[in-house]
Write a structure and sequence with these properties.
The chain is mainly alpha-helical. The chain contains two helices and no strands. The chain is 95% helix and 0% strand.
């Protein structure tokens, strides 16, 4: 017959084994929860790191976009200024071309007058003594015409030189405009790309 102390001991061993098993189960649960918490902490840290990186990238991208916009505005300003300068220069050249044509025509008429008076002087020289007063007056007219012709030639040369400088300036400005046009195209592409990147980044951060 089984004694009472033995039954009590057996029950105590059973309870102790159950308690140990329960403790082990709880420890496993705690370890599992601890592992989950650590995984969550790592995931959160990674997410925060990713968010911080994306925030920095967004800030850098916004700064770059602003710089691109400022650069684009400056290029547009220079472009408009160059176009305006060329337009004014072209008007000036047209005016100078008209002046040159007028001066050339006037010079041609004076040379014809000078040639005519010179012929008359030669005729008078052959008939010297017949009309010395008229001859002297004609000679003075020739000198005046010669002086005026030289003045016209000097003025014409100056106008041609000025026109040449203006044409050279227009050529340089045209090169500047072509270069600015290329810059505008490149900046427009960069701005469009930056806007697309910013849009994608904003969508990823949602």
């Amino acid at each position: 017959m089984i004694t009472l102390p033995f039954l009590q001991l057996e029950e105590a061993e059973y309870n102790r084994a159950a308690a140990v098993k329960s403790k082990q189960s709880k420890e496993l649960e705690v370890n599992d929860l601890q592992s989950q918490l650590e995984d969550m902490a790592r995931s959160r840290k990674m997410a925060e790191g990713k968010a911080a990186k994306m925030t920095r990238e967004k800030s850098d991208l916004s700064t770059q976009l602003q710089e691109n916009e400022d650069e684009l505005a400056e290029v547009i300003r220079k472009y408009k200024s160059s176009v305006s300068t060329i337009s004014q220069d072209q008007i000036t050249i047209q005016s100078q071309s008209s002046q040159i044509q007028e001066l050339e025509l006037e010079g041609k008429k004076m040379k014809e007058q000078l040639a005519d008076i010179s012929r008359r002087l030669e005729d008078m020289d052959r008939n010297k003594g017949k009309d010395d007063i008229f001859s002297e007056s004609t000679a003075n007219d020739v000198k005046k015409l010669e002086i005026k012709c030289k003045e016209l030639e000097t003025k014409l040369e100056l106008e041609k030189t000025t026109k040449g400088r203006m044409e050279s300036h227009i050529s340089r400005q045209t090169d500047v405009i072509e270069s600015l046009t290329k810059d505008l195209e490149e900046l427009s592409v960069r701005e469009k790309r930056g806007q697309d990147d910013q849009k994608k980044m904003s969508q990823n951060m949602r």
